[in-house]
Amino acid sequence: MVMNPNGRSPSHLSNLEKARRKLRYYRQQALQPIRWLAYTTGQTRFVPPPDRMYIESTNICNLNCIMCPTGLKLIKRPQGFMDFEVFKQIVDEMAPWVRATTLHIWGEPLLHPRIFDMVEYCTRKGLRTEISTNATLLTEERAKRLLEAGLSAIYLSIDGLRPETYENIRVRADYERTNANIRRFIELKVEGGYQTYVNIQIIKMKQTLDEIQEFVRVWSLPGVDRINVKPFDSWADQVDQISELRPNEVKLPEKRWACPNLWYHVHIYWDGSIAMCDRDFNLNFPLGNVVDPDGKVRVMKNWNGPQMQELRRRHLENDLDDVSPCNKCTEWAWWKPSPFFAQGNRPADEGSKMVRLHEDGPIIIGLDDVET
């Protein structure tokens, strides 16, 4: 029997729960053209709830990756773990509105002592959950707990097909151990009939270019739903050491448009701070905190708060010379929404192709064909 993400047959959902999920789906679909209208008309104050939510469970990581500000020790914000009670309040407020939430931004989510409770809580609220992990800590016990908690999607990052490539990128990681952890997770998914959507991920960068084609072939396994050749993110070209890893030259449109992230994505750091996006890893442009002085969590109050309104206005007017990191960013051009389409944080062009696995072999697909 095929299970749903929380390990139960879909037929075991109560009629009330089915109705709630259907209502939530139609509400989200109805918001898409309204959100697009707010973006295209330059609305800054009365913006509908975001399409996607990014929650930083922790900004602590166990690796020193060469393409990551965390790994290079460039993030100066205090380190910590999101309080579980704060997390629950965030989910309670936003679950009816957002299509999905990640439980990672700048850290390794498996380090959070309550990551499994976080996934399970979202599952109970009917909220799709995703994590991206370096998989070094993905033991069999942790793998089972994630699957049983109802994780919707996982990105298993293994940047390289050869041990020397991988270990030069993912500093402090062991290729054989990570490889074994990922393969065991896939086996457990298949054996248990779980529906967790498995993405095997490699970042497209100078060091990995020669291995990508073979990477796709090797990881085309039963239980793997998609191979994600992740486009290189320079993190707004703030760090030369990272930008030098870019595999090709960036070509930008002649005219800059307002970054859609400010109308479509909310990023909440572990301490409740709201960021414009993950590229503002040191909160150069603070946008408030979801935790009010009275201890109550109010996400939407800050989503349309004065700081966010001002940032949206400056994007609309292209007044960004002193707004860091927007003033150096090239990733603003990655995508534009349409009345019935929005996506996660990746470019919507030929370079953003993914590989979805099919019984007849890998199929190259575009973003219009996948849930993001």
Going across the biggest sheet, name each strand in turn.
8-7-1-2-3-4-5-6-9-10
Number of strands: 10
Q: Helices and strands, in N-to-C order?
A: HEHEHEHEHHEHEHHEEHHEE
Number of helices: 11
Report the radius of gyration as a whole number of Å.
Answer: 20 Å
Q: Briefly, what is this?
A:
By secondary structure, the chain is of the alpha/beta class.
Please describe the structure with a list of short key phrases separated by commas or semicolons.
372 residues; alpha/beta; ten-stranded mixed beta sheet; 30% helix; globular
Report on this model:
With about 375 residues, the protein is of the alpha/beta class. The chain is about 30% helix and about 10% strand. It has eleven helices and ten strands. The protein has a ten-stranded mixed sheet with strand order 8-7-1-2-3-4-5-6-9-10. Helix 3 runs parallel beside helix 4 and helix 4 crosses helix 6. The protein is globular, with a radius of gyration of 20 Å.
